[in-house]
Design goal:
By secondary structure, this protein is mostly beta strands. Helix content is about 0%, strand content about 45%. The protein contains 2 helices and 42 strands. The strands form 10 sheets. Strands 3, 4, 5, 7, 10 and 12 form a 6-stranded antiparallel sheet that branches. The protein has a 6-stranded antiparallel sheet with strand order 27-26-29-24-31-32, with no helix packed on it.
Length: about 625
C-alpha cells in the first residue's frame, strides 16, 4: 500500500503525484428516499428565470419542483467567474451529501426539473420566438467530467415523453474549459411542447458514488420574443461574496482585537466581482456597508460617488477600504459583522415587451433583476480563529495509519484553548466513529515541551458544513504560534477527511507528517475547517470541598520562588498539561520550584482562608 496525504474533493479535482495530492472522494452510503420524494407542482407561465443568486443551498421552488431540492444544491463559491452569484451543482451525491450508489458505476445522478409551465398561454404568432437559454461550466472548482459523462437537457411533450434536445447530436460538443461558462440557446417551437404541463429537465450522468464529474448551471431563462442572438440582458450581477474584513482570518478572538495597539493591522480592504450581462456600456455606482448584526446597527458606510463604466459583457473587480476599527464597540464581548456590497446599476424588472415605436416598455413584475445587485459575507470577532468561510468544497485527508496533519495559528495575546471545532464531511462513506488523536503542539521539535495536549476522539458528522466541538480538558494556555491537528488512528488505509474551503487560502499554514518529519504543504490551496476556540476561565483542578478565595501570590513573573500572603496548608504546581513540577514548601509562605525554560504553570493553593488557583509566569531561578 502506498500512502499519501491527500486533499480530496467534495466537488473534487485531480492533480499529479506530490506531497499533497488532490483526489476525488467516493462514498458508500446508498440513496434512500429520492425516488419517493413528493414532486408537488405549481403551474407557472412564461417567463421562466432563475440565476440562483438568492439560493443558499436549497433550490427555489418558485421555478423548480420540490423534488429537485433533494438532489441539487445551489450556492455561490463553486463556479469560476459565473454569470451571477450562485450556481446549481450536479454531481454523484444528493443535497445531503449522500452518494446515489455504493459502487463506482456510471449512470443517472442529479437532475433539476422545472415546475409545469402552461405554454398554451403563449400567443400563436409568438410561438416561433420561444427560446430557452442557460450557462454551463464543467468542473469549476470541482472534478472534471470524463468523456462518457454528460449534462443533458430534456423537454416534455404533450404525450408526457421526455425528448433529448441538448446536446443535439454527436457533433454538439461540450465546452470543457473549466474557467468558462458557456451560453446555450434551445429553440422551443415544436407544436408538441405548447401544452399546459410542459416541463424541462437537466440531468447529469456520471459516477454515482461520490462528488465526481461536476457540472455547474446558471442563469436559466425561457421566454417568448427571443432569438438565437438574444444574449444581451439588462442586468448587472455580483459573481462572488466579498473577501474577508480581516488581514489573515475570517474570524478572530475579541481579546486580540482589544489588546492590539494598532488595530488597523488586523483589517484589510475588501473586494468582490461584478459582471455586466448587457452588450452595451453601463455606468454604475456602488456602496459598501458594514453592519453590527447583533445590535442591528450600521457601523460604516462607503459610497463610491464616481460612476464606474462597465463595458459590454465585462467582469470587473470592485473594492472598498478597510474598516475603521475606531467605529467598533470595544466594550462588547463579541462583534458579529456583515459586509454588504450594493450596486446601483439601473437594473429593473425583466422586460416583457417594448411598444409604441420604442417609447413604452412593459415589464414582468415577477422577475426582479435587482436581486443579484447585492452580495454579503459575515465575519465574527468572538472567541475563535477561522481561516475558512464555513463552506467546504473539498475534503482534506490522510489514509496512512499514524499519519498527521497540523494547522498553524498565531495568537496576539496568550489565552486558554478549551475546544476545537471541526467539520468532517462524509468522505469514502460515512466517517462517523473513525478514531483520531486530536493534538495541540507548540512546535515541531518533538521534545517534552512541544506537545501541549492530545486526546482520542471519534469523528462525528451531523450535517453538511456543520461543525462538531471537541473539548480540551483542562483548557491549555497558548502563546505566539501553536498548531492544532490530528493523527489517523485507523488500523487500515481508510481515508480520514476534514472539510476544505476553496474560497479562502491558508495553504502555507498546513503541515503533514508521514514518516516522523513535519513538512509544509506546498501545492494544495484552500483552508481547513478546523477552528480553535478559547475561554477566559483558567482551569481549576486538584483541590475540592473548600471555598474559593483570592490570595496574593508574588512575584509574577517569578524566578524559582513564589511567596504566598497566607500560610500554605497544601498546594499543587503543574504545567498546563497537568504534569507535576518539581517544587518544595520552603516555609509556610514560600514555594520553590525548578523549570528549565520559561513557561506558564498552574498553582493550586489551600490555605486557612480557602482554596485558590493562579497562573504563574515561571522562569528558571536566577
Amino acid at each position: 500500500m502506498k500512502y499519501f496525504v491527500v486533499f480530496i474533493l467534495l466537488l473534487s479535482a485531480s492533480v499529479g503525484f506530490a506531497q499533497l495530492q488532490v483526489k476525488p472522494l467516493k462514498g458508500s452510503e446508498s440513496k434512500s428516499s429520492k425516488s419517493n420524494a413528493r414532486l408537488q407542482s405549481t403551474t407557472i407561465t412564461l417567463p421562466f428565470w432563475d440565476d440562483f443568486s438568492t439560493s443558499t443551498g436549497a433550490i427555489d421552488t418558485t421555478w423548480w419542483l420540490p423534488g429537485s431540492q433533494v438532489q441539487v444544491i445551489a450556492k455561490p463559491g463553486i463556479g469560476i467567474d459565473p454569470p451571477s452569484l450562485g450556481v446549481a451543482t450536479f454531481d454523484g451525491v444528493d443535497a445531503t451529501g449522500t452518494p446515489y450508489l455504493a459502487s463506482a458505476t456510471d449512470g443517472n445522478v442529479d437532475s433539476l426539473l422545472s415546475q409545469p409551465i402552461d405554454m398554451t398561454q403563449v400567443p400563436a404568432n409568438l410561438r416561433n420566438t420561444v427560446y430557452l437559454s442557460f450557462f454551463y461550466q464543467s468542473k469549476g472548482l470541482g472534478e472534471a467530467p470524463e468523456e462518457q459523462d454528460s449534462l443533458i437537457l430534456y423537454l416534455k411533450d404533450i404525450d408526457g415523453t421526455w425528448n433529448k434536445v441538448w446536446p443535439a447530436n454527436s457533433n454538439d460538443n461540450y465546452t470543457t474549459n473549466p474557467t468558462v461558462f458557456t451560453e446555450k440557446f434551445i429553440h422551443v417551437s415544436d407544436a408538441k411542447y405548447f401544452h399546459d404541463q410542459f416541463q424541462f429537465m437537466f440531468r447529469a450522468k456520471g459516477r454515482q458514488n461520490g462528488w465526481y464529474d461536476n457540472w455547474l448551471l446558471d442563469y436559466v431563462y425561457m421566454d417568448k420574443r427571443r432569438s438565437p442572438t438574444d444574449n444581451s440582458y439588462l442586468d448587472r450581477a455580483f459573481t462572488q461574496p466579498p473577501t474577508s474584513l480581516f488581514d489573515n482570518y475570517t474570524a478572530i478572538p475579541f481579546d486580540d482585537f482589544v489588546e492590539t495597539i494598532d488595530k488597523s493591522t488586523l483589517f484589510q480592504s475588501t473586494s468582490t466581482k461584478l459582471r455586466n450581462l448587457e452588450s452595451d456600456i453601463q455606468p454604475i455606482e456602488y456602496s459598501v456597508n458594514i453592519y453590527d448584526t447583533l445590535n442591528h446597527t450600521l457601523v460604516q458606510s462607503t459610497t463610491v460617488d464616481q460612476e464606474l463604466l462597465l463595458f459590454s459583457k465585462a467582469l470587473e473587480e470592485i473594492n472598498s477600504p478597510a474598516i475603521d476599527p475606531g467605529l467598533l464597540d470595544q466594550s462588547a464581548d463579541s462583534l458579529y459583522l456583515m459586509l454588504e456590497y450594493y450596486v446601483n446599476s439601473g437594473d429593473k424588472f425583466l422586460v416583457d415587451s417594448i411598444y409604441n415605436n420604442d417609447q413604452d416598455t412593459a415589464f414582468y413584475s415577477n422577475v426582479n433583476l435587482r436581486i443579484n445587485d447585492t452580495t454579503r459575507a459575515y465575519f465574527n470577532i468572538h472567541d475563535y480563529y477561522a481561516y475558512d468561510d464555513g463552506t467546504a468544497e473539498y475534503g482534506a485527508g490522510i489514509n496512512q495509519p499514524q499519519g498527521k496533519i497540523a494547522y498553524q495559528y498565531s495568537v496576539i495575546v496568550g489565552k486558554y484553548l478549551d475546544r476545537i471545532d471541526m467539520y468532517f464531511p462524509n468522505v469514502d462513506g460515512n466517517q462517523a466513529g473513525s478514531p483520531l488523536d486530536l493534538f495541540v503542539l507548540n512546535d515541531f521539535e518533538g521534545n517534552e515541551n512541544s506537545l501541549q495536549t492530545q486526546s482520542n476522539i471519534a469523528i462525528k458528522h451531523t450535517g453538511i458544513n456543520e461543525f462538531v466541538s471537541y473539548n480540551i480538558t483542562p483548557a491549555i494556555y497558548v502563546t505566539d504560534t501553536f498548531y492544532i491537528g490530528f493523527t489517523n488512528l485507523s488500523s487500515s488505509d481508510n481515508w480520514v477527511g476534514v472539510g476544505l474551503d476553496k474560497n479562502t487560502d491558508s495553504f502555507d499554514k498546513m503541515f503533514v507528517n508521514l514518516d516522523g518529519n513535519w513538512v509544509p504543504n506546498t501545492n494544495v490551496h484552500g483552508s481547513l475547517m478546523m477552528r480553535p476556540h478559547f475561554t477566559d476561565e483558567a482551569p481549576v483542578t486538584g483541590i475540592d470541598d473548600k471555598q474559593l478565595v483570592s490570595i496574593d501570590v508574588y512575584p509574577n513573573p517569578s524566578f524559582g520562588i513564589i511567596h504566598v500572603a497566607d500560610e500554605v496548608v497544601s498546594y499543587r504546581l503543574t504545567d498546563l498539561l497537568g504534569k507535576e513540577i518539581p517544587s518544595s514548601l520552603n516555609s509556610a509562605r514560600e514555594i520553590r520550584y525548578e523549570v528549565g525554560a520559561p513557561q506558564i504553570l498552574i498553582l493550586m493553593l489551600e490555605t486557612r482562608q480557602g482554596i485558590f488557583s493562579k497562573r504563574i509566569a515561571a522562569n528558571p531561578a536566577n
